[in-house]
Structure to design on (228 residues):
């Protein structure tokens, strides 16, 4: 299993929108609707932000949204806020295990 | 409230062994799919392995780099998940997290425990 491909970094000003991609294969992202996204602040455990491609757990602001097309999933943060500055990891079910992306660092300018 | 607390991390020499524990509470552990994820210093997340509940066979699957060296087990009477790590390598140095798996997502995470493999 190879890691999913994410951009190393994205940035935006407060109030702007940023979108990050997560590219896999037909054996993971493209083969299942089990794509999830995790936010991780420095020194903290990851936190589930999006599951099943586009669903938000309770408590996650609706500024966070997810989508998928073919072998590529995307996470969009609308109305960027200072507290959104963190690392974001995509994850996909891959048949028996889970494969993660390398992570995208979101910087709020 | 779901709570997962990892323990057992520490410093170990290459070739050594270590067993991590993950104490679970706040949910029905014996029916839960559980997973171990690790994060090397300054690096991304990597799934180590996943174990099914006994009602689904209780078997575990592992990522290729740890096959034959790591073993995931569970003690449902103690609500505890384990990760036994043998023949440790320097590249196994990481923070190890346990998490619950619900329908394709890693729902709740512990705070992690650091394993350092160094001579």
């Amino acid at each position: 299993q190879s890691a999913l491909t994410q951009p190393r970094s994205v940035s935006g000003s407060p109030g702007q929108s940023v979108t990050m991609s997560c590219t896999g294969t037909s054996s993971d992202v493209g083969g299942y609707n089990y794509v999830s996204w995790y936010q991780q602040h420095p020194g903290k455990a990851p936190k589930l932000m999006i599951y099943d491609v586009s669903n938000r757990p309770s408590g996650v602001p609706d500024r966070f949204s997810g989508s998928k097309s073919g072998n590529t999933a995307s996470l969009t943060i609308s109305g960027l806020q200072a507290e959104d500055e963190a690392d974001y990891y995509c994850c996909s079910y891959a048949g028996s295990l889970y494969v993660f992306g390398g992570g995208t660092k979101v910087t709020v300018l | 409230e779901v709570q997962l607390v990892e323990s057992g991390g520490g410093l170990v020499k290459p070739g050594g062994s270590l067993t991590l524990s993950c104490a679970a509470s706040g949910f029905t552990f014996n029916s839960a799919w559980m997973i171990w994820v690790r994060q090397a210093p300054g690096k991304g997340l990597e799934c180590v392995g996943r174990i099914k509940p006994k009602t689904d066979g209780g078997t575990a699957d592992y990522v290729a780099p740890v096959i034959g060296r790591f073993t995931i087990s569970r003690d449902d009477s103690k609500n505890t998940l384990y990760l036994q790590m043998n023949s440790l390598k320097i590249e196994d140095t990481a923070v190890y997290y346990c998490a619950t798996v619900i329908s394709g997502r890693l729902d709740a995470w512990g705070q992690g425990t650091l394993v350092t493999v160094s001579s």
